[in-house]
Design goal:
- It contains eight helices and twelve strands.
- It is α/β, with parallel strands linked by helices.
- It has an eight-stranded mixed β-sheet with strand order 3-6-2-1-9-11-12-10, sandwiched between helices. A four-stranded mixed β-sheet has the order 5-4-7-8.
- Helix 3 runs antiparallel to helix 4 and helix 6 packs parallel to helix 7.
- It is globular, with a radius of gyration of 17 Å.
- The chain starts with a strand and ends in an 11-residue tail after the last strand.
Length: 269
């Protein structure tokens, strides 16, 4: 079982509102199709970030901080619409290349409490996988019991699904080659991060608007995933170079490896 996330920074220009990178989306769809069709019985769950579609609107209305006024709820609807617009582009590209994808937007079933997912419908996703199809989730708005509204990231959805679906590999594809030890100079990539050594590095947030926290949050969420599933490997890497996502789906070591403490003495390869 593999989880693959296409980061918002990869499939959109996060510095320009509602700007998809359609050529990248189509190229990645082809790579996923090649890997999926050449690997019998591959169980794959896809996810993607909201990028310049959801983050700019969410930041404008403070959707991740809650909603109570009519203006804030109208903002909630606008964030949903923006996220759904990008999801449609991604899904259409995957369908057009022949991949049997079915979209499960978290806003349709997720309920959160203080920004943490409390409930989300898993059973339809399990049936989708059992049928040999590919479910796809996304960063999305959600109703929150305590504050009205929130934004949940794809990593949060992965974290909720992981204990049930038990992936052996989680791939987080963005534009950065890995997790940098020296951001923003970006010359030294960290090969292997565990809970034991994560405090040894200073990992910064994102330069572009990202209401879900940027790289520092992604690293912590990846380590949380590793605690939930035994022997799980998470890789943070760049999907910019042609073929890298296909290679990663086939098990090639790319980017920064994240594992649990129990694997901290093992080779990152």
């Amino acid at each position: 079982m593999i989880f693959l996330k296409l980061g918002g920074s990869l499939i959109t220009d996060k510095k320009q509102p509602q700007t998809p990178r359609l050529d990248v989306i189509h190229r990645i769809a082809s790579e996923i199709a090649e890997a999926f069709q050449s690997t019998p019985n591959m169980r794959l769950l896809l996810g993607h970030g909201s990028g310049s579609f959801g983050h700019f609107v969410a930041d404008k209305f403070g959707t991740q901080l809650g909603a109570s006024s009519q203006e804030e709820w109208h903002g909630f609807a606008q964030v949903w619409a923006a996220a759904n617009q990008l999801n449609r582009m991604v899904v259409d590209s995957l369908l057009n290349i022949g991949l049997p994808v079915v979209s499960f937007p978290p806003s349709a079933s997720a309920i959160s409490r203080n920004n943490a997912i409390e409930k989300l419908a898993i059973e339809p996703i399990r049936y989708t996988l059992d049928a040999g199809l590919i479910p796809i989730v996304q960063g999305d708005v959600a109703f929150d019991i305590k504050q009205g509204s929130t934004i949940i990231s794809t990593e949060q959805v992965f974290e909720y699904l992981a204990p049930t679906l038990k992936p052996h590999l989680v791939l987080l594809a963005g534009i950065e080659a890995g997790v940098y030890q020296d951001y923003p100079t970006c010359e030294k990539i960290i090969d292997h991060i565990t809970e034991a050594n994560s405090q040894d590095f200073s990992i910064e947030a994102s330069a572009a608007p990202d209401v879900t926290g940027g790289m520092a949050t992604k690293v912590q969420q990846a380590l949380s995933l590793c605690r939930l599933v035994e022997d799980l490997e998470v890789r943070i890497f760049s999907g910019e170079r042609m073929g890298t996502i296909r290679q990663a789906l086939h098990g090639t070591a790319v980017g920064t490896l994240l594992t649990s403490i129990s694997k901290s003495t093992e080779s990152p390869s």
